[in-house]
Design goal:
Blueprint: H1 3-7, H2 15-33, H3 52-70, H4 72-86, H5 92-127, H6 135-149, H7 153-162, H8 165-172, H9 176-205, H10 210-225, H11 229-249
Length: about 260
């Protein structure tokens, strides 16, 4: 039995997180259906009419919803296994909370870094006349980058770690709250190594754009837990590169797949 297959039953051992994931998706769907998508779609350093601190606070809230919807499903096998092995140590609930905190710290740091990078690129674009009228170059470039990363050795190494949660746990498990936090950081780092480029796409299309959110979430989940997930990586990479090139050089009037449909 493979490590991935063995990990699948662990999904049912984290009902609270499953509820959080469901709530995050329902919130994203409800926000779009009710026309309040701006509250979870926020992905700019400074929103119109907002102070910087308020804009950052709104982003952090929206980003946590986004992570709960897209990334927590991919880590449920690890959560289930950690719940099993941590049950015999002192304060197991606190250890589990510490593990999740470490995982979320990694992804929150990435979100802030990506937010600042996008703000910097937008600022540079305003001063570069050749780039400012061509936002499709940035959108297409991010897609090409995400596609190219699918072929990298780093992607393959990190995906191998994520697809074998039992082996990862055996190698890095330590008892206690600090051990749980360290394990969460390590697991989050490999998860980030698998998915950062795909998640970067969401900063171009809008972090709550359901038309991109759902397929990318399904892709990242299947890459990690699907029976043939590893075989899907390179074909997806080729498709993303092709789509990125089409976005960059597409003819006039060609529909832009990167524009958030809710904001068109």
């Amino acid at each position: 039995m493979s490590a991935v297959t063995a990990a699948r039953p662990a999904w049912g051992r984290a009902p609270l997180l499953a509820g959080v994931i469901l709530a995050a998706w329902l919130l994203a769907i409800a926000a779009e259906l009710t026309g309040q998508v701006q509250w979870v779609h926020h992905h700019r350093l400074v929103a119109d009419g907002m102070a910087l601190w308020a804009s950052l606070a709104l982003f952090l809230v929206a980003w946590q919803v986004h992570i709960a919807a897209m990334m927590l499903p991919t880590t449920l096998p690890m959560v289930g296994l950690y719940r099993q092995v941590a049950v015999g140590q002192p304060h197991p609930r606190l250890a589990r909370a510490s593990f999740l905190s470490g995982y979320l710290v990694v992804w929150t740091a990435f979100g802030l870094a990506a937010l600042l990078a996008m703000a910097l690129l937008e600022g540079l674009g305003a001063h570069w006349p050749w780039l400012h009228p061509r936002p499709e170059w940035l959108a297409g470039g991010v897609l090409v980058l995400a596609g190219a990363f699918q072929f990298s050795a780093l992607k393959a190494r990190c995906l191998d770690k994520c697809r074998a949660p039992r082996a990862f746990l055996l190698n890095h498990y330590r008892r206690g709250v600090a051990g749980g936090f360290d394990l969460g950081l390590r697991h989050g780092a490999f998860c980030l190594g698998c998915c950062w480029a795909l998640m970067l796409v969401m900063f171009v299309v809008g972090i709550a754009n359901l038309a991109w959110m759902a397929p990318l979430a399904a892709l990242m989940l299947y890459e990690k837990v699907g029976r043939h997930g590893a075989r899907l990586v390179r074909p997806v990479g080729a498709a993303l590169i092709l789509l990125g090139l089409l976005v960059m050089v597409g003819p006039a009037g060609w529909p832009d797949p990167m524009v958030p449909h809710a904001l068109q």
